Amino acid sequence: MTDSKDLARGAHTDFKEAMSYGDYLRLPDLLACQSPLSDKHDEMLFIVIHQSTELWMKLAIHELRAAVENIRADQLGPAFKMLARVSRVQAQLIQSWDALSTLTPADYLAFRDLLGHSSGFQSHQYRTIEFLLGNKNKGMLAPHRHTPDIHRVLAETLNAPSVYDEAIMLLARRGLAVDPSQTARDWSTTRTADPTVAAAWTAVYRDTERYWDLYELAEELVDLEDSFQQWRFRHMTTVERIIGYRQGTGGTAGVSYLRRALEIRFFPELWDIRTSL
Fold it and tell me: Is the pTM of this model over 0.70?
C-alpha cells in the first residue's frame, strides 16, 4: 500500500522566492470576490455560479475573437479548434444550471431584494458573445453607458463582422455565388436569411469532398449554436423553477423574455438548408 508521504516526496514546499500555484492564479484576489450582501446561506451559491459563468464567458470571448481573425485569414484549422472549445465551454455553462437549480424559491426570495436592479441582462460579456455570434441590437448598449471603456468595446464589437459574417465572406472568396449585399453591409444589424447564402451552403453540403473545410466550418458553427440554445433553454427553465413568471430584477419580463430569446437564430441558413437538402 502506498504511503501518503511517498506521494508528496519531491514536491516543492518552499515558496519564499518562488511562484506558487496560488500566486500564479492570484487566488487571494479571486477568492476575496465573493461578498454576500446578506447572512443567508444560499447567497454564496448564487454569487459563485454567476462569477464562474463570467469567467467561462471570458474564455469564450477570447476564443471567438481569435476564431474570427483566423476565418478572416483563411486559417480554418485553428478556427475549428477555437469554435470547438467554445462549444465545450457552453457544456460547462449548461451543467452549471444544475447546481443553481438547487436554489429553491424560498432560498432565493430570502435575499433577492438586496440585488436591486442588478441582473444577468446587464452582463457585458454575455452581450459581447451575442454580438460576436451575430445577434446585433444597438439598444443593448444602453445598460453600459455608465462604464465608457466597456461601452466602447461593445460598440466596436457591434459594428464589426460577426463570426458568421466572416464565414459568409469566406464563401464568397472561395468563389461561391454570394450576393454582394451580404459581404458589404451594416455590420451593426442582425442578418436575415438570404437565398444566395443558403445556396452557397447547399453547394458545400452537396459536394463535401470539394469543400471539406467549409463543410467542417459549417458543422462547427451548428455545434456552437446548438450548445448556445441548450444553454438558453436551461437558463429559462432554471429561472422558471426559482421565480416562476415574476419580473426579472433588471426589469425584463423574466421567463417570457428568455422564452422569446429561444426563437433567435444566429446562423439561419445552416438550419434552413437541412430541410431543403
Answer: yes
